[in-house]
Amino acid sequence: MLRYAFRRLISFALALVVASLVVFFSLEVVPGDPAAYMMGLNARPEAVEALRAELGLDRAPAQRYVAWIGGMLQGDFGTSYTYRAPVAGMIADRLWVSLPLALYALALSTLIAFPVGIWAAARRGSAADMAVIGTTQLGIAVPNFWFAMILVAVFAINLGWFSAGGFPGWENGFWGGLKALTLPAIALALPQASILARVMRSALIDTLGEDFVRTARAKGLSPGQALRRHALRNALIPVLTIIGLQFSFLLAGAIIIENVFYLPGLGRLVFQAIQQRDLIVVEGVVMLLVFAVITVTFLVDLAYAAVDPRLRRG
């Protein structure tokens, strides 16, 4: 297991290096000058050059890349061109909204999908199974921002149970913050739960047809016992893949939902930074999201090895 984890850790480090190169140099070739944008159309050339020197934009790209990587390794993501504030602090403030939102949505998605997928697989071909397939197909087809608007119309405007948007801050109470994230989390979770439930159902149906499950049934286990004791664990590998991908998507791809509910998360931060050509903020946020995606992938690989010993031996 340790050798397997070490090999995956080396792949993890190499992927981070390649991702950092792609992120930095992709943004470097984006047309436009942040200093000229900040100074405005009527700025004098010498004033723009002075600002470029102050921001470090006059150095060679390779020098700036090395300085950027060295700073991130020490927890310094640089200083925002627009707000003149440390990028690490700005990201940390927004992360306390985006990370709980992603975890909340992932928990809801898993709690919905697991029992629904298992229930449908155990009743394959029945009317209940067909109803689950139809409902999950609808959940996949409908965009999550449409779910968000429906939730706001029903539960915020008509019933008044939740606020229509905004975030009070965790310092004003845990339950108040959790309540503010509930509708956005449901809007994010419903499409992901539909995907996960279908994967859970398909994986279980495939596993229930294996010889070892039939052998367990021949030894006297009931269908439910064979499913819980033998089929479920062996069906978890594709499910773990989807859960890992979903967390990465929920953390990195919630920009639309954050804008619908006016949440001060990473999505809105990177959207505003792109508008203002604040490239150092964009680079910092994107690299953080890349790190989160690769870390989740690494943890999913370790979960694979825990579920399937053949991977450890391989």
Automatic annotation (TrEMBL):
This protein's name: ABC transporter permease subunit
Location in the cell reads: Cell membrane
User: Does Signal appear among the keywords?
Assistant: no
The family classification in the record reads: Belongs to the binding-protein-dependent transport system permease family.
Q: How does it sit in the membrane?
A: Multi-pass membrane protein
Q: List, alphabetically, the InterPro entries matched.
A: BPD_transp_1_N (IPR045621), MetI-like (IPR000515), MetI-like_sf (IPR035906)
Q: Which Gene3D superfamilies match?
A: MetI-like (1.10.3720.10)
Q: Which UniProt keywords apply?
A: Cell membrane, Membrane, Transmembrane, Transmembrane helix, Transport
UniProt cross-references to PROSITE patterns, sorted A to Z: ABC_TM1 (PS50928)
> Locate the ABC transmembrane type-1 domain: which residues?
95-298
Quote one Gene Ontology molecular function term. Answer: dipeptide transmembrane transporter activity
Which species is this UniProt entry from?
Halovulum marinum
- GO cellular component terms attached to this protein's record: plasma membrane
Annotated CDD domains? TM_PBP2 (cd06261)
Transmembrane domains' residue ranges: 101-122, 143-162, 174-191, 235-257, 285-307
Q: Does the keyword Membrane apply?
A: yes
From which domain of life does this come?
Bacteria
Q: Which Pfam families match?
A: BPD_transp_1, BPD_transp_1_N
